[in-house]
Design the sequence.
């Protein structure tokens, strides 16, 4: 299993909360909108976007580790908290700001590039 396929470790309390939500969901069968409204689910992130972000954060972590930098080192140089960096690296921050990503990368001497790809129109508009 590659590092991008691994799930972040959950504390016992987090695991219990997830299990409680799953058990209630089996009975109630709420939809995503209802779960979001109740605060039991964060806003959904499209899978492709999540995978791109996950790949980027795993790469940044690999660079940090290769350079022998600790979370504390990056924290002190970036002005970010150790917890924020850890959440970013472990996939818990699903919507980091560009500032957060650029600050982290700058400490590592890395560069993040943004790109725009034009998507083809949906099939219904191609007729």
Sequence:
């Amino acid at each position: 299993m590659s590092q991008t396929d691994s799930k972040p470790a959950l504390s016992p309390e987090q695991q219990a909360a997830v299990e409680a939500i799953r058990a209630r969901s089996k009975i109630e069968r709420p939809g995503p909108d209802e779960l979001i409204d109740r605060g039991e689910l964060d806003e959904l992130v499209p899978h492709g976007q999540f995978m791109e972000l996950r790949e980027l954060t795993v790469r940044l972590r690999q660079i940090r580790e290769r350079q022998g930098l600790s979370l504390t080192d990056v924290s002190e140089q970036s002005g970010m908290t150790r917890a924020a960096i850890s959440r970013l690296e472990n996939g818990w921050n699903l919507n980091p700001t560009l500032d957060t990503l650029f600050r982290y990368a700058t400490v590592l001497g890395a560069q993040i590039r943004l790109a725009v790809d034009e998507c083809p129109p949906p099939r219904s508009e191609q007729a």
User: Anything to note?
Assistant: The mean pLDDT is 83.
